[in-house]
Design brief:
CATH topology of the largest domain: Immunoglobulin-like
Strand order of the largest sheet: 1-2-7-6
InterPro entries: DNAAF6, HSP20-like_chaperone, PIH1D1/2/3_CS-like
Number of domains: 2
Organism: Mugilogobius chulae (yellowstripe goby)
Order of helices and strands: HHHEHEEEEEE
Structural class: alpha+beta
Protein name: PIH1D1/2/3 CS-like domain-containing protein
GO molecular function, one term: dynein intermediate chain binding
Family: Belongs to the PIH1 family.
Largest sheet: 4 strands, antiparallel
Distance between the termini: 60 Å
Number of helices: 4
Number of strands: 7
Helix content: 10-25%
Strand content: 15-25%
CATH architecture of the largest domain: Sandwich
Shape: elongated
C-alpha cells in the first residue's frame, strides 16, 4: 500500500495539472526525458505572468553599471590612478568604564562590541606635518589625505560625523581620530 504524500511522482503531476490546467505543449527535447526529470518546483502552479517590461542594458543611453544608491559611501574618493600609498592604521573599539564596571559589574557592560561607544582610528603618517593633513569624516567613511599618503577607510560601524575629535602627535608622527558610534538602539544594550 502506497502512502499518500508529496514525494510521489503521480501526486506532484496531479497537483501540477490541478493548479495549471492550461499545460503548454512540451518541447521535443523534453519528450525524451524521464517524467520525474521534467517535473520541478517551477512546473507546479500557473506560469508567472510577465507584465512588467524588461529594460535591457542596451536600451539605456547610460553606460553606468550601478545606480547611485547602490554605490557605497566614500567610493567617490577611491582613485585607482593615485600613486600615493596607504599608511598603516589601526581601528580600536573604545568603552567608557569606571570602577563600578570593572570591579563590581554594576552597569552590565561586557568586553563585547555591543558595549563600545566610540571608534579610535590610529594612522601612522611618517614625515608629515599637521598643516599637510586633510581629514574628512562621513557616517561610514573616513578620508585622510596628505602629500605623501592617502587613506580611504570604510568604517565598521556608522559614526556621528560631526561629534568626532582628532589629535596629531608630532613625536609619534601619528594621527588619532576618535569618533562616537551612532547607536540608535542603545536602550537595548542598557540594563
Amino acid at each position: 500500500m502506497e502512502t499518500l504524500g508529496v514525494s510521489s511522482l503521480q501526486t506532484l503531476q496531479a497537483l501540477s495539472t490541478l493548479l495549471n490546467p492550461e499545460k503548454e505543449q512540451e518541447d521535443e527535447d523534453c519528450e525524451t526525458l524521464n517524467p520525474s526529470a521534467q517535473l520541478g518546483p517551477g512546473s507546479i502552479g500557473p506560469k508567472p505572468k510577465n507584465d512588467t517590461p524588461v529594460v535591457s542594458a542596451s536600451a539605456c543611453n547610460s553606460k553606468d553599471i550601478w545606480s547611485e544608491e547602490e554605490v557605497a559611501e566614500g567610493s567617490q574618493f577611491d582613485d585607482l590612478n593615485d600613486p600615493r600609498p596607504q599608511p598603516e592604521y589601526e581601528v580600536i573599539m573604545k568603552q567608557s568604564v569606571g570602577t563600578e564596571d570593572v570591579f563590581l559589574g554594576l552597569s552590565g557592560k561586557d568586553p563585547s562590541f555591543m558595549s563600545c561607544e566610540a571608534l579610535l582610528v590610529k594612522i601612522k603618517l611618517p614625515n608629515t606635518k599637521l598643516a599637510d593633513v586633510i581629514l574628512d569624516v562621513k557616517e561610514t567613511f573616513l578620508d585622510v589625505r596628505t602629500p605623501k599618503y592617502k587613506l580611504g577607510l570604510h568604517l565598521p560601524h556608522p559614526v556621528l560625523s560631526q561629534e568626532g575629535k582628532a589629535q596629531f602627535f608630532s613625536e609619534k608622527e601619528e594621527l588619532e581620530v576618535t569618533l562616537q558610534m551612532k547607536r540608535p538602539m542603545d536602550f537595548f544594550n542598557r540594563r
